[in-house]
Amino acid sequence: MSAAVELQPALVADAIAGLSATRKTLPCKWLYDAEGTRLFEAITRLPEYYPTRTEVQILDQRGRDIAQAVGRGAAVVEFGPGDGAKAVQLLGALQAPAAYLPVDIAPEWLEDVAERVTGAFPHLPVRPVVADFTRPFDLPAHAGGSAARLGFFSGSTIGNFEPEEAVAFLARARATLGPGSRMLLGADLVKEVAILEAAYDDSARVTAAFNLNLLARLNREAGADFELDGFAHAARWNPGRERIEMHLVARRPQRVRLGGRVFAFAAGESIHTESSHKYRPDRLRQLAEAAGWRQARIWTDPEEMFSVWLLEA
Ligand code: AVI
User: Fold this and answer.
1) Which residue in 31, 96, 168, 179 has the most C-beta neighbors within 10 A?
2) Residue 34 within any structural domain of the chain
3) Containing domain of residue 137, as a range?
């Protein structure tokens, strides 16, 4: 018998709000339960999903140049460190980093990341910060001492924000990091639609499983009764907004119970589960400037698939 899972009031409230909207939607943050996180890690290794390996390639091939531009003795503050692999890569490239401060809402992930980074750099001070970085938060006083702070936000997670949310995040990050800080930001670039759609609709169907897991999670943690075979994964390029949208499309008319309500779906009606904005450099520069940052450098791979930015406050 499987263990009972507690209902999550915040998930129930978000689901009721999103499924009551004229265009049904669910916040993408709920994609990442333990199974969603495992599936996302599998996505990053797929042949079609170029962003992770291209960003790693840029950090690897341009590491020296990045280190020189950043300078000696930076305290690295990473927003959402994932498994810590990119932190190890960046810290290994930088000149005498002063400290590493991973910021995440999940304390258990932070412990793993801290262990990984300490294993690689036993003498580097590592100070995990438990906080939701999509909201205002403060770094602990004296975190990283007097060292200049370098924010690190990789993986093009900035693309999962609406543009106005991206500006708000960048402005808050600037305030949190403080005067004289810098930010290293990974951002995916606009490119051929076929490449983009394949990256979000892979032939092994891992992204489909990642998207559909959200309905399984709603069944487990919001007491819903979605029939998983009643929905299909779709990844569509929205040319007006220059973003990939993930949807769950109803295969047939159906009614779903959740939180004491019934939600009706027409055949073909979809739930929008995630947007992944792709940027042209000029547009991202505008957003960064609106948040009070100035572009110092930009590095890309030879095919110009992905970009890594150094911003100055
Ligand atoms: C986490 N984020 C940057 C990924 C992206 O590419 O937008 C999430 C993802 N969704 C489907 N595949 C990957």
Assistant:
1) 31
2) yes
3) 62-191+279-312
Residues near ligand 1 (Cβ within 6 A): 43, 51, 155-157, 159-160, 200, 207, 274, 276
> How many domains would you assign to the chain?
2
> How far lies 67's CA from each of 130, 176, 306, in Å?
27, 22, 19
Amino acid at 6: E
Pocket residue to mutate for ligand 1, from 200, 272, 275, most atoms within 8 A of Cβ: 200
Domain identity same for 103 and 181: yes
- For ligand 1, atom 9, the nearest C-alpha belongs to 40
Return the DSSP state at 133: T
Strand partners, 221: none
Q: What interface predicted TM-score (ipTM) does this complex get?
A: 0.99
Q: How does pLDDT run across 219-260, given as a tens digit for each residue?
A: 999 999 999 999 999 999 999 999 999 999 999 999 999 999
Question: Does the residue 55 lie in any domain?
Answer: no
Please tell me the distance between residue 260's alpha carbon and the centre of ligand 1 in angstroms: 31
pTM (two decimals) = 0.95
Each residue's pLDDT tens digit, 164-183? 999 999 999 999 999 999 99
